[in-house]
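Why predict the complex rather than its parts? Because the way molecules touch one another can change local conformation, and only a joint prediction can capture that. The input here totals 647 residues.
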Amino acid sequence: MIPGLGALTQDTLWCFSQVKGTVEVGATEADIISTVEFNHTGELLATGDKGGRVVIFQREQESKNQVHRRGEYNVYSTFQSHEPEFDYLKSLEIEEKINKIRWLPQQNAAYFLLSTNDKTVKLWKVSERDKRPEGYNLKDEEGRLRDPATITTLRVPVLRPMDLMVEATPRRVFANAHTYHINSISVNSDYETYMSADDLRINLWNFEITNQSFNIVDIKPANMEELTEVITAAEFHPHHCNTFVYSSSKGTIRLCDMRASALCDRHTKFFEEPEDPSNRSFFSEIISSISDVKFSHSGRYIMTRDYLTVKVWDLNMENRPIETYQVHDYLRSKLCSLYENDCIFDKFECVWNGSDSVIMTGSYNNFFRMFDRNTKRDVTLEASRENSKPRAILKPRKVCVGGKRRKDEISVDSLDFSKKILHTAWHPSENIIAVAATNNLYIFQDKVN
Amino acid sequence: MVGGLKRKHSDLEEEEEDEKWDWSPAGLRSYQQALLRISLDKVQRSLGPRAPSLRRHVLIHNTLQQLQAALCLTPAPPLPPEPLFLGEEDFSLSATIGSILRELETSMDETEPLQNPAAPPSPQNEVLPQPDPVFLEALSSRYLGDSGLDDFFLDIDTSTVEKEPAGAPPEPPHNLFCVPGSWEWNELDHIMEIILGS
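Output of the joint prediction:
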């Protein structure tokens, strides 16, 4: 761990490191990245896309010759996780888009991750093979069966080295448990169970059992016409395996304890900030809808993202957040247009750095924002091909809200709302971030002095 | 983008707390009309081959209910005699939205197990889910356009929106809303025809 890690001081400069993905303008929709996640050591970085594919990058070992060059991430494995499906009974397509990837902590040589689309969660095993057995008795070198009459001796096959091959195999398929669209999966700290959450229900699974799950939250009303609120995100506490939180479309967070009852319909804690009457509009509820909820690594705080802000909550204080950060408040006067073009429904994610001192989230125009909780400084950076020279330092960006626009500023009306950064990830212990900009994955690192 | 609307919208938001606020009738009306048009359009468009996003649907539904509440502050004017309209209580807006949600529930009936997916999807026109017949009839009926917007709100269940939130905007003057035969009435008429005709 680097001392002072993650502090967004004046000395922290972010540099371009790598970009993955195609350059051409007409990239297919299947290439749009829909989730990004580092594993627990930061050695691996996984992305999922709309086409149902998972791409895993591995960090190369740092070479002694180039101490100033941190390890780069190169493709380690690519596989098709989910395929498009069609539900004939309901005449509905089921998208293959990967909504979330979550890594399991590594317990042996193989890597395990969960990937999910709207309906089905899968456990994938990613393992290396660098040896293969040769000298079978019953098969020849090409694998064809030998005529038993020709076999006159017995020998033991030996393992011989081969070119490294990384293979991904689906070990478990957890299907048919969600009527509505899965928005979250979260691995429990016991490493034996995980949960999957859809719009109205949360299920608890054991990794070994695929044909049943426990329903732990159900907010479906008896009469669907009375439905006014849905579940938007859910996560287990990082240390307490009985505790989890889930957020809603009305801007509330509920913390539940599974020891209290089998069905956690009654929350242990209820987090909600009272509405500011001066900001009330027809869109108040939509912009209060929480799109992401994340526990801090310490487990003492939760962070939520709604359309315009990021909030940090102390688990011990339910009536209001302890910190609120404005991501792009200049959009507040544009809500009607953003409602019309559907941007107001965009779901931005948010992440903590390894020491919980800095938080990051995305915005439009390929901008993303970082907030230092200690110094209260914030910065806006841009993921673009123009700033893509190796180790080029990212220049802070600024949006001009009114009045005279300075040379380097961009006016609100010039923002490109089709370039949205919804998914970002922060290395668990270093200042390395991965930012998904449509079909490109940018990796930035802080400048090594 | 809704062009000339931006200025009026921001005017509204700045003045919301002001007791002496001047409700520019044209501004408020066109704003609410536009929101209603946009919302109804979204509801219509969300029925398709893909299972709709429940979150988006619920948020639009809740916004529509707020709009209903705002537009219903004046009592509906007496209806012209309209034989086709008798007993057709289902053509209130909330029932329309309700039927959409019912349709959603039917399409997401959890007692049906998932089919084994193998073949690619059939052509578009074979697989579009059929919306509630009541809803379809509401959309296609021409007399809805003739009678105007207020007919939508005949049977609104206002029990959920009865309490006035603190700091709600002051009630607009009565002459703000549509009277049959007025030019605003015809304007709303026109908007509804555009929606229904599309």
